[in-house]
Amino acid sequence: MAHWFISTKYRKNTKLSLITFTVVCVVILLGAFTRLTDAGLSCPDWPNCYGFMTAPHTTSQIEDAAKLYPAHPVETKKAWTEMVHRYFAGSSGLLILLLAGTILFNRKAKDLKSKLIALALLGLLGIQVALGALTVTAKLKPIIVTSHLLTGLSILSILWWIYLEIHLQDDSFVEKKSTRAKGFLWIGLLLLVMQITLGGWVSSHYAGLACIDLPYCNNQLLPTLHWQQWGSDLITIHMLHRMGAIITGTYLLSLGLFLIRNPAFRIIGISLLILTLVQLTLGIFNILWLRPVWIAMLHHATALLLLLTLITALVKTTFMTSNRYGSLHHA
What we know:
Elements: H1 3-6, H2 12-36, H3 59-68, H4 76-104, H5 112-137, H6 142-167, H7 179-204, H8 234-260, H9 266-288, H10 293-321
Helix pairs in contact: 2-4, 2-6, 2-10, 4-5, 5-6, 6-7, 6-10, 7-8, 7-10, 8-9, 9-10
């Protein structure tokens, strides 16, 4: 990361990046809660809700909303769920603009990497705002909803990477045997992102209960899968996520065991093992208990923690091999 970011004079940017990251986390989880409670279209317009800046809640507001959108009866509780999500999303957007601005317009930040990070944040923010509007206007089209989720996760990942590169400067991170771990970590991150994408695909199609038993699927050990209809057949969508869970879970557990052998990554390895086991368990209970909202929310949150754990490990390997801390070329 840029030297200006790490300078004591600009230490306030550590707090700004962490605050922005935290708010984006809340936005992503609120988005999950909105989907799980079927509140995504509780406001038929955007960015207002039935023409109001808040969810209609007074008698006169509800009457006006009914006249304006007669085909969309007001459900105040769900509308508030959607609007709270929008309020936090708007707040996160302002924070991202502020953080990107401190990078682009600070005369101490002259390196290309800092500029690219700021521009990436601004670009992703613009895409995310557009997708947020399209989720409503396109009536929760699955490809839009899933893209909205993945763009949010991309923003979150960059913010976490920024915070870590600002915060983790201790020379104790300079250890051996980081190069080989880095390749394995990138594979793990790729598999996890693919699995999260499948999870988003399941959620956007409301396919979580397409199979209601385990290890079977509606009393079939291996149901007929329609690969040509992977974007519409609910059982196929559900089973793809199950298969991905087996592959990703197996790899992450193996990766955790590998990392534990390296003292520099032992805590991360243990965290990866625990989180993977918790995530697999939550996935099982999601099916057996017919997807209670609180279990599904924990499932979403644990996926975020897995993502952040792998990013933390990757940043750590970057610090280990950085010339700034001494070049390490050990296998």
